[in-house]
Amino acid sequence: MENMCKNYVIAIDGEAGTGKSSLAKNIAKKYKIVYMDTGAMYRCVTLNMIWEEISLDEIYKIERLLENIKIDMENEDGEDKFYLNGIDVTKQIREKQVNDLVSQVSHIPVVRERMVELQRKLAKGKKIVMEGRDIGTNVFPNAKVKIYLTATAQERAKRRYEQNKEKGINIPYEEILNNVIFRDRNDKSSSVAPLKKADDAFELDTTNYTLEEVEKIVVEKIREKVDLDA
Predict the structure, then answer these.
(1) Which helix (H) or strand (E) element contains residue 174?
(2) Least CB-packed of 20, 127, 132, 212 within 10 Å?
């Protein structure tokens, strides 16, 4: 065992729709590790900008918004809930208006800086599993465990479409696929913490695996680095 430390970060990065969130949630629940949904944090910022009618180029207004924003994550009866300035926005942050803007908002340097600062603060002194696009390369470059997930754009769009249907969110598959392709291009070409695999990350293509199979493979890799049962 390479590390028997009490606190650690498990960083799960990868393309949108590869199952990062579901994987991180399952690992957190099974091994009593804190789960941080970084994507939801950016979605909350995006929704707040929509509420305040702040455009992407109004940096001064965005800075003011970030000074006062309050984002909370709670698990209520087994369901993750997200609160923006005290309001339950769990469903709203997954709707079309947010989907269309969140990738661009997450590329604004001041937004990225504020969210990374908050993520590091929340993770301090904890066992934590965190997923996103730059956790292992930027937020926690010294994370003890780094995982990088990929899958075809078509498979990821299919998964997102099915997830939305379960939540009562009706967005056409073709629109989701176009959004996935756009997100990939945006995330990988960004000048601010672009999506890329960390040199020391374990990479897994999830296209032909079920979530259960992915979890089994990833947990085996995690156990090589940290003691999940401690």
Answers:
(1) helix 173-189
(2) 212
